[in-house]
Amino acid sequence: MPKPLTFLGLESSCDDTAAAVVRYLPGHLGQILSSVVDGQTALHAPFGGVVPEIAARAHAERLDHCVERALLDAGLTLADIDGIAVTAGPGLIGGVLSGVMCAKGIAAARGLPLVGVNHLAGHALTPRLTDGVSFPYLMLLVSGGHCQFLLARGVDDFTRLGGTIDDAPGEAFDKMAKLLGLPQPGGPMVEAEAAHGNPKRFAFPRPLLDRPGCDLSFSGLKTAVLRARDALISAQGGITVQDRRDLCAGFQAAVADVLAEKSKRALAQSPPVTAVAVAGGVGAHKAIRARLETGCVSAGVQFLAPPLALCTDNAAMIAWAGIERFRNGARDGMDLAARPRWPLDTISPAMLGFGKKGAKA
Ligand code: KG4
Ligand code: ZN
Prior knowledge:
Distance between the termini: 42 Å
Structural class: alpha/beta
CATH class of the largest domain: Alpha Beta
CATH superfamily of the largest domain: ATPase, nucleotide binding domain
Number of domains: 2
CATH topology of the largest domain: Nucleotidyltransferase, domain 5
Helix content: 40-55%
Radius of gyration: 20 Å
Bound molecules: 5'-O-[(R)-(carboxyoxy)(hydroxy)phosphoryl]adenosine, zinc ion
Number of helices: 11
CATH architecture of the largest domain: 2-Layer Sandwich
């Protein structure tokens, strides 16, 4: 009987404190025994964005409780855990440090192996947890802090084919929401408004489609929306509910068009792959998912999108990535460092782009 591996995962790189227990049994899909996500949206709401110091303190206060709850929900104790996986970067350094210290404490106290995980690898390996996809596959990572096309060749082997040269798409959704007086996080809000809007009323640009390759840009699009909003305000003294819906619909259509076209190019540029997968918070957007799926169907490639709760930040993906790395022989010691920046692809030249968590790759 093959022996299962059960890992506790911790995630605290941005504004979600999370702990999860995931089990690997050879020959089976990974099993998420529990996944606790304690979001900090309410804490940061008055400031219109994530405040690093507030986030770090909240992580330090909440991690223990999340771990307790994750074990309780899984019906396990630390005696049943085979290893601890923790996000060791990239992200807001105070939060990453909180997670790394907590993980080191548990690992040292219980004599358990410790595995540091790159947050981006957590997202990028999620389709292996949910669907058991084999390498190589093409990954579109789209969130509030990152935006890149990755060729996933192995657990620690990623090649970046392209990425944003400025904002990440989730960041653009969040800024859009701010411009239009909608609450954060902006993605789901803009998506809900756009459902009642006319995507054709405003002709927003499709940035970088006129250039070859699969790099992306979102900051010009945001500026175009700002101009359209200001034109409405000066013409009519404000914007109506319908204006807002139409602005959201126009913006969203532009983002979906760009992601769909650039995905097509990334696929054309990469060697044969087993699947195309999407991950990160923006992967939760239904219309964007649908567009990506249509593109894959016409290219004859399998399309994978993890369940919504596994698209946004969570610790199950960290526990899983920890298991994968552990099975590959990875072990970290008490000198595991918290890294604010940590590109997944260390060979391709660094991107200029910044996400809300700073330059990553
Ligand atoms: O992956 P994630 O949870 O955290 C980061 O690592 O950034 O992604 C959060 C981002 C936020 O910018 C949020 O507005 C966006 O993902 N997001 C969405 C949706 N749900 C979350 N964007 C578009 N549509 C959504 N439904
Ligand atoms: Zn993330």
